[in-house]
């Protein structure tokens, strides 16, 4: 709210500054403004129009006859009331008595701030001698302050008579501003300031806007859907065309067509402003757009230069019509802006209103209803109009950028969230996986203990209860159970998938026992590649297989030496257990039931490891070879868990 | 030859009695006393420090490790032997770090039992392949990052450990290294001492990091 108020105040400040332009060039005291003069009018013929008198007869200079009537300046020469066939040439004479200001030094001069509409020409006479001619055939003569330098130095001046001859066509009147006279050094700044306010500043703004329009056009070329940028660009062009007559010296394409351009560019501008504003208000009304477009075309046709209509009349009529349309459109826009309550639409409405006000003011000035010293304001309307345009598009643009940034930010935040969620779910998965692995291990261990320890203890218990087991036999069973428990414990020890350490553990446990049984170990174990799959459960299987092999040797082989060696190739590792006992024939029935069961057990366990057990036996001994894969994953999966 | 003075701290009366009888029956050993609890054990070693102390880790009123630390900090001559059922890695390593230099399996054969006490007293320590493997990992890895006062393994000690992991017996290692079996056992004991020192150093290092000990 406060922000909006501040902006409104800013807008009003600008209006005030613009109006302040009117007060500019207030002359210093050494400059005399002629608010009064004497005037007479003479009818002249065509020849007289193109030739001005070389001098004024002395008697006429000073004559005080009734043909000189006193008038007030500025002077509005009304146009001829009755219609005329062809031009009616006249010359209006003004005379002033100039009294040099005491203390003024340097040359003297006269400044005519404005002569409108600029048709015809002005000749200046000093004491009856022509000193300068201001031809008003330049495009912006109506807007151009005219300076005349007096030929003689002021200190030589006593009272002098100044005559101004305005040669004109009576069908259109004219407006002559009150001339200023004074030392050139005092007049020049006034003239320069007027030059700046009336011509230079509008010109500078015009070009600056055109450059801005180029930017907008370039932007639109990249983003064709942003039509408002195109409208902005076209608006600056229309504005440029519209304000050309304020500052160009020569008509752009012939006087009449320039006039047509000037007249119609205002229509274009209004149409563009309307389209722009409607798009910003998102209140496009097709019928209104078509209506305005139609008006623009009609206006363009009606004002075509070769139609027999009186230019000033057309100008005033057109401008009045434009003002009417502008009022209607701006009212509609304002209503929307009040409803929408967005800063850019409001600022746009305010800016358009300022321009409407400026246009009305200029229209009054154009219609000779205001003193001609006044400055045309509409060129300064650009500051507000395009300022508001710029505010609107940059606001929209920065809002878009803001949205993109916000979107990026949101996206990043969401990405972060997702990452965290992913990590969390990954952690959860890992945990579940770990639990699953641990669970599986536990299950397998349970099964092992159930099959091994459990069943041994149970069957022994039954036998002890039935009194069928001697204490010594009980001790043997318990010893076996403890051995099995130790094996289980050993399988849980950290061996880092190293089969050699596992074999070493086995020897560490059983070595002493074998020694006691009179067996000698020939330990030929060498480094083996790590087996990634060798976890606690599989370690236990390996230990059991080898324990079985060793037990068989102790119980049945009658051997003296057991050789244990290891070997490896690319696909598998091998543990070879060889004894020097009497051997047996595995395929035949020679092997006793216990050995047979042991072999079956070994084979079954090896299968679970996706390895195999190979047994060969002859009279010189038995060799049990355990083949283990290096990578279990590469082998066909079968039911490892039974 | 002086008798080997032995004390036993074991809460299981049967084992305590069995161990006591075995020691008493051995002519070169003398049983100083037995205890069933940590408090009694503390009292026992305070009265007289034995040459060999047998300690069970699970005591009804505390941890055997505390007794081991207590004795290790007070005596350089007392060899501490942990009594364990399985000689599993975690218990053994903890005991060695606390200051033990040997361990006994509860189901050891009686002749082995006495022999192991003798060997320990003579400066030799038993070691299992799994423990050897753990020690190898410990001494190699941390030695690179920790300060210089952490002891390192000598080349021979390293060889002993790596041969143990492969399952070779002391005799085999001794012949492979061309030393006596007893020397191999003393290597192991030295390694145990180093582990004890390094675990102490590590503790100090950790304490420094936590700001518990000033430099």
Topology readout:
The complex is a heterodimer of chains A (642) and B (215).
Chain A: H1 2-22, E1 32-33, E2 36-43, H2 46-50, H3 58-62, E3 69-72, E4 75-77, E5 89-98, E6 107-112, E7 115-116, E8 121-126, E9 129-135, E10 146-153, E11 160-169, E12 174-176, E13 180-183, H4 184-222, H5 227-247, H6 255-281, H7 286-302, H8 311-340, H9 343-366, H10 378-465, H11 471-491, H12 499-516, E14 520-524, H13 536-557, E15 561-568, E16 572-579, H14 593-608, E17 612-618, E18 621-629
Parallel strand pairs in A: 14-15
Antiparallel strand pairs in A: 1-13, 2-3, 2-5, 4-12, 5-11, 6-10, 6-13, 7-12, 8-9, 8-11, 15-16, 16-18, 17-18
Chain B: E1 4-9, H1 13-24, E2 29-35, H2 38-47, E3 52-56, E4 58-59, E5 62-63, H3 64-74, E6 79-84, H4 89-98, E7 102-105, H5 110-121, H6 129-145, H7 155-165, H8 170-177, H9 181-210
Parallel strand pairs in B: 1-2, 1-3, 3-6, 6-7
Antiparallel strand pairs in B: 4-5
**N/C terminus separation of chain B:** 46 Å
Distance between the termini of chain A: 80 Å
**How would you name the CATH homologous superfamily of the largest domain in chain B?**
Response regulator
In the CATH hierarchy, what is the class of the domain at 496-634 in chain A?
A: Alpha Beta
Helix content bin of chain B: 55-70%
> Which range does the strand content of chain A fall in?
15-25%
Oligomer: heterodimer
Ranges of chain A where pLDDT stays below 50 over 5 or more residues in a row are 638-642
- The average pLDDT value of chain B, as a whole number, equals 81
**Tally of discrete structural domains of chain B:** 2
* Rg of chain A, nearest Å: 57 Å
What is the count of helical runs of chain A? 14
Characterize the largest beta sheet of chain A: strand count, sense, and whether it forms a barrel.
Answer: 6 strands, antiparallel
Taking all residues together, what is the mean pLDDT of chain A? 81
Low-confidence stretches of chain B: none
CATH class of the largest domain in chain B: Alpha Beta
Q: Which fold name is given in CATH as the topology of the domain at 496-634 in chain A?
A: Heat Shock Protein 90
Number of strands of chain B: 7
């Amino acid at each position: 709210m406060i922000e909006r108020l501040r902006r409104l105040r800013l807008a009003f400040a600008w209006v005030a500054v613009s109006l302040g332009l009117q007060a500019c060039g207030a002359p210093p005291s050494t400059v005399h403004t002629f608010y009064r003069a004497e005037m007479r009018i003479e009818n002249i013929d065509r020849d007289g129009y193109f030739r001005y008198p070389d001098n004024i007869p002395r008697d006429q200079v000073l004559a005080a006859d009734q043909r000189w009537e006193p008038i007030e300046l500025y002077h509005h020469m009304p146009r001829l009331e009755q219609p005329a066939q062809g031009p009616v040439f006249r010359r209006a004479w003004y005379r002033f008595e100039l009294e040099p200001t005491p203390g003024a030094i340097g040359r003297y001069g006269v400044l005519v701030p404005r002569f409108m509409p600029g048709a015809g020409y002005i000749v200046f006479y000093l004491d009856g001698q022509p000193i300068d001619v201001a031809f008003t055939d330049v495009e912006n003569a109506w807007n151009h302050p005219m300076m005349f330098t007096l030929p003689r130095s002021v200190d030589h001046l006593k009272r002098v008579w100044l005559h101004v001859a305005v040669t004109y066509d009576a069908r259109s009147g004219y407006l002559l501003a009150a001339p200023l006279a004074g030392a050139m050094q005092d007049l020049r700044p006034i003239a320069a300031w007027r030059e700046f306010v009336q011509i230079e500043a509008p010109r500078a703004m015009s070009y600056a806007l055109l450059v801005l329009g180029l930017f907008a056009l370039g932007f639109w070329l990249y983003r064709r859907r942003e039509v408002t940028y195109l409208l902005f660009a076209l608006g600056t062009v229309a504005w440029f065309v519209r304000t050309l007559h304020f500052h160009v010296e020569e008509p752009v394409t012939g006087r009449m067509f320039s006039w047509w351009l000037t007249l119609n560019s205002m229509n274009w501008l209004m149409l563009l402003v309307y389209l722009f504003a409607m798009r910003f208000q998102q209140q496009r009304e097709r019928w209104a757009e078509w209506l305005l477009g139609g008006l623009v075309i009609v206006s363009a046709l009606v004002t075509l230069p070769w139609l027999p209509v009186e230019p000033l009349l057309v100008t005033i009529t057109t401008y009045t019509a434009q003002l009417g349309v502008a009022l209607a459109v701006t009212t509609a826009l304002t209503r929307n802006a009040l409803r929408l309550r967005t800063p850019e639409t409001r600022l746009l409405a305010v800016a358009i209103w300022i321009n409407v006000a400026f246009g009305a003011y200029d229209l009054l000035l154009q219609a000779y209803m205001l003193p001609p010293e006044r400055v045309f304001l509409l060129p300064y309307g650009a500051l507000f109009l395009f300022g508001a345009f710029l505010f609107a598009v940059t606001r929209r643009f920065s809002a878009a950028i803001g949205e993109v940034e916000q979107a990026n930010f949101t996206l990043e935040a969401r990405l972060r969230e997702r990452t965290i969620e992913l990590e969390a779910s990954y952690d959860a998965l890992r945990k579940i996986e770990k639990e699953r692995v641990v669970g599986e291990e536990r299950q397998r261990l349970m099964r092992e203990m159930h099959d091994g320890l459990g069943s041994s203890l149970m069957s022994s218990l039954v036998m002890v209860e039935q009194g069928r087991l001697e204490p010594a036999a009980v001790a043997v069973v318990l010893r076996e159970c403890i051995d099995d428990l130790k094996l289980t414990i050993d399988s849980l020890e950290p061996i880092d998938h190293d089969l050699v350490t596992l074999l070493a553990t086995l020897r560490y446990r059983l070595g002493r026992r074998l020694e006691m049984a009179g067996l000698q170990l020939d330990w030929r174990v060498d480094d083996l590649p790590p087996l990634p799959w060798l976890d606690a459960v599989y370690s236990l299987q390996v230990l059991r297989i080898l324990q079985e092999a060793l037990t068989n040797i102790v119980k049945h082989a009658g051997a003296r030496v057991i050789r244990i060696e290891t070997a490896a190739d690319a696909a598998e590792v091998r543990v070879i257990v060889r004894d020097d006992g009497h051997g047996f024939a595995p395929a035949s029935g020679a092997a006793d039931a216990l050995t047979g069961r042991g072999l079956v057990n070994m084979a079954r366990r090896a299968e679970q490891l996706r390895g195999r057990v190979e047994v060969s036996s002859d009279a010189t001994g038995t060799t049990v070879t355990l083949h283990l894969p290096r990578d279990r994953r590469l082998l066909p999966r079968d039911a490892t868990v039974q | 030859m002086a008798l080997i003075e032995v004390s036993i701290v074991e809460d299981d009366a049967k084992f305590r009695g069995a161990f006591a009888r075995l020691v008493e029956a051995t002519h070169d050993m003398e049983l100083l006393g037995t205890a069933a609890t940590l408090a009694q054990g503390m009292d026992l070693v305070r009265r007289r420090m034995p040459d060999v102390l047998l300690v069970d880790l699970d005591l009804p009123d505390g941890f055997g490790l505390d007794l081991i630390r207590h004795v290790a900090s007070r005596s350089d001559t007392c060899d501490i032997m942990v009594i364990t059922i399985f000689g599993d890695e975690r218990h053994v390593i903890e005991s060695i770090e606390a200051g033990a230099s040997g361990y006994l399996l509860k189901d050891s054969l009686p002749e082995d039992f006495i022999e192991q006490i003798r060997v320990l007293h003579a400066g030799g320590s038993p070691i299992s392949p799994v423990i050897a493997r753990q020690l190898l990992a410990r001494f190699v890895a941390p030695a690179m990052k920790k300060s210089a006062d952490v002891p390192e393994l000598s080349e021979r000690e390293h060889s002993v450990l790596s041969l143990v992991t492969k399952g070779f017996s002391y005799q085999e290692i001794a012949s492979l290294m061309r030393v006596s079996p007893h020397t191999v056992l003393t290597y192991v004991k030295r390694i145990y001492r180093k582990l004890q020192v390094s675990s102490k150093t590590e503790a100090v290092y950790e304490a420094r990091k936590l700001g518990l000990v000033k430099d």
